[in-house]
Write a structure and sequence with these properties.
- The protein is an alpha/beta fold.
- It has 2 domains: 3-290, 7-stranded beta/alpha barrel, CATH 3.20.110.20; 306-390.
- Helices cover 52% and strands 10% of the residues.
- It is built from 18 helices and 12 strands.
- The strands form 3 sheets. Strands 1, 2, 3, 8 and 11 form a 5-stranded parallel beta sheet that branches. It has a 5-stranded mixed beta sheet with strand order 4-5-7-6-12.
- β1, α1 and β2 form a beta-alpha-beta unit.
- α9 (220-228) packs parallel to α10.
- It starts with a strand and ends with a helix.
């Protein structure tokens, strides 16, 4: 039986305010709160709230037969909790149905998997804990930032305990192979790979309302017919996109919500089912292995890391950021740790892109890549100064580790002394009370 695996991604960064060179050292708050609230509320009104309601109705109507997956970055959840808590409640309702699988990813929607393995593991752990806290699920399937994948990343993900990962069906990854099968990583054969069907996914995400597209209009019957007409051996159709496709990238007026509402009914009439990623991995066996020596992603024409690391501006910014990773992990200051998280979002580097056809995000608050770079580097300079204030740059990491150990040992010693003092005071109070009682009795 053929099955459709729908997956939707939710992510929004904390955008930075205009931060000038003269602000360095005097202003340690970096975020454009007005813009962040305005954008997240706008997208929630157009997409999150409506899509949650539509999907919940479908889940209830088809009683366990319709299923899909969601991945939500930690910093998107942070914003929704503050600005649109009703969207979080809607997601919780979806989770309660048992037909929505929440996936693991980096908490900060970062590129740590390419730059800092220790930070990568820390973020995945933090994200998993957040998902479990909010939705009661422990993710079983891993989806990296922007579907970033390589043989090295596969190894790290498997070592973290994941047996299933999601990958973009790029031509240089698949070659002649079809995306409509389950695969395994050649670098880590026990890691199963679900591959995105680029054509069907992008037909919905980018071409759905394009009047010049040869297949316009894309109606539910047409999509289902494409799937039924595929070779019988092709049983898996991974259709993945941003959640914002529903109502924002494709507005409600295009009929996108009606399109999704009709898909289950038509699919079931053609004996096509729906599965969550972990179910696919359990019911299917890999038909082959995929070797990916260089990072691939689901962005741009090349489907690689160039939208974030394709020019010297981006490379300089991300190199400078991760050069202080070890020091930041020694810091206990909550504000510094929070800023470290938010400054890692991949969007900041995408805003610096100078690529012709896959340049900065449509949500970029900057006029051009150079403006984005200057603003980010000013913020980063101030942030590095704050980190240096706690752990100076002229001290080697070995010395810092020794210093941190000494500090922690001192903290433990102080705690133990406090406990001893408390015990002594309690004993003294008891002794004093006993002495008083003796005097009273004697009198």
């Amino acid at each position: 039986m053929k099955t459709i695996c729908f997956y939707f991604q939710i992510h929004q960064p904390f955008r930075l305010k205009r931060y000038r060179f003269f602000d360095i050292g005097s202003d340690h708050y970096y975020y454009d709160d007005f813009s962040n609230e305005d954008i997240i509320r706008g997208i929630a009104g157009r997409t999150y709230l409506k899509a949650n309601a539509v999907m919940l109705d479908l889940l209830k109507e088809y009683k366990g037969k319709f299923k899909f997956a969601l991945s939500i970055s930690g910093i998107a959840l942070d914003q929704l909790e503050v600005y649109v808590p009703e969207a979080i409640e809607g997601l919780k309702e979806l989770a309660k149905t048992g037909c929505v699988e929440f996936l693991a990813e980096t908490y900060n929607h970062s590129l740590a998997s390419l730059n800092d393995p220790e930070e990568f593991k820390n973020q995945v752990k933090a994200h998993t804990e957040k998902i479990h806290l909010l939705f009661g699920q422990t993710p079983k399937v891993f989806r990296n930032t922007e579907l970033m994948f390589s043989d090295d990343i596969a190894q790290m993900v498997y070592e973290m305990g994941y047996k299933v990962m999601m990958v973009e069906g790029a031509k240089h990854v698949l070659g002649w192979k079809s995306p409509n099968y389950l695969y395994a990583s050649s670098a880590c054969p026990k890691l199963k790979l679900l591959v995105r069907n680029m054509k069907y996914s992008d037909d919905i995400a980018f071409r759905f309302s394009n009047y010049d597209w040869s297949e316009y209009p894309l109606v539910s019957d047409k999509l289902v017919n494409w799937i039924t007409s595929a070779p019988d051996a092709e049983q898996l159709f991974n259709i993945w996109m941003n959640y914002e496709v529903l109502g924002s990238l494709q507005t409600a007026e295009t009929g996108i919500f009606e399109f999704f509402k009709a898909i289950p009914r038509i699919a079931f009439s053609k004996s096509i089912g729906f599965s969550m990623p972990s179910e696919v991995a359990n019911m299917m066996k890999p038909v082959g292995e995929l070797a990916v020596p260089y990072p691939c992603s689901w962005a741009g024409e090349e489907k690689d890391a160039s939208p974030w690391l394709g020019n010297i501006l981006q490379q300089e910014a991300i190199s400078k950021l991760y050069s202080i990773g070890e020091r930041v992990r020694m810091v206990t200051d909550r504000r510094i740790r929070q800023d470290w998280n938010y400054l890692q979002a991949s969007d900041h580097f995408n805003f610096m892109s100078t690529k012709l056809f896959s340049g900065p995000s449509v949500y970029s608050p900057y006029e051009n890549a150079y403006d984005a770079f200057n603003n980010y580097m000013n913020v980063l300079s101030d942030f590095i100064n704050r980190v240096d204030g706690q752990f100076p740059a002229n001290i080697e990491n070995e010395e810092l580790n020794a210093l941190l150990t000494t500090i922690l040992n001192q903290e433990d010693e102080i705690k133990n002394l406090k406990k001893e003092l408390e015990k002594t005071l309690i004993a003294a109070e008891k002794e004093s009370a006993a002495t008083k009682r003796k005097k009273i009795i004697a009198n």
